[in-house]
Write a structure and sequence with these properties.
Layout lengths: L18 H12 L7 H12 L18 E10 L5 E11 L2 E12 L2 H19 L9
Antiparallel strand pairs: 1-2, 2-3
C-alpha cells in the first residue's frame, strides 16, 4: 500500500488512498499472508460482513447472491469539490474471490455519489459473473 497517506493526527478519515491500495488491502484480508494473521483477517472481515443496515450500500449492488459480502464505505462533504463517496468490498464464497473499490469525488450530494458507485458496481458484477456479453457492455 505504497500510495496511502494517513490523515494527520487522529484524522484517519482524511487518509488519502488509491483504489489500487484499497484492493491490496482486500487481498490482504482475504488471503493468507505475512502481514495479517488468520485471527486479524477474520475479525476485520466479520466486521465488514456485519455493517449497520443503513451503510449497506455501494459495491454490493448487483453482487452475486451466492457471494459473502464484506464492505467498508466512506463519505465526506468537502467545502470545495463536492462530496467524496467511496465503497470497497471483498466478495468471497460460492465460487467468488474478488475485491472491488470505487472511489468518487465531486458528487453534489452523498446520494448522488452512492448512486454513481452502485451503477458502476452493477456493471462490474454483471461482467465478472460472465452474464455480460460484449454487445451488452
Amino acid at each position: 500500500m505504497r500510495h496511502t497517506v494517513p490523515g494527520s493526527g487522529k484524522s484517519w478519515g482524511l487518509t488519502q488512498i488509491t483504489a489500487g491500495d484499497q484492493l491490496r488491502l482486500m487481498q490482504l484480508l482475504t488471503t493468507e499472508n505475512a502481514v495479517l494473521g488468520p485471527a486479524s483477517r477474520g475479525y476485520a472481515l466479520d466486521l465488514m460482513n456485519h455493517v449497520t443496515p443503513g451503510q449497506k450500500w455501494g459495491v454490493p449492488a448487483g453482487s452475486p447472491a451466492t457471494a459473502t459480502v464484506h464492505i467498508k464505505n466512506g463519505w465526506l462533504p468537502r467545502t470545495a469539490g463536492g462530496w467524496r463517496v467511496h465503497s470497497v468490498g471483498a466478495f468471497t464464497g460460492g465460487g467468488h474471490d474478488y475485491g472491488m473499490a470505487v472511489l468518487s469525488t465531486g458528487s453534489r450530494t452523498m446520494d448522488y455519489g452512492i448512486g454513481t458507485i452502485e451503477g458502476a458496481a452493477r456493471v462490474i458484477h454483471h461482467d465478472l459473473s460472465g452474464a455480460g456479453s460484449a454487445a451488452s457492455r
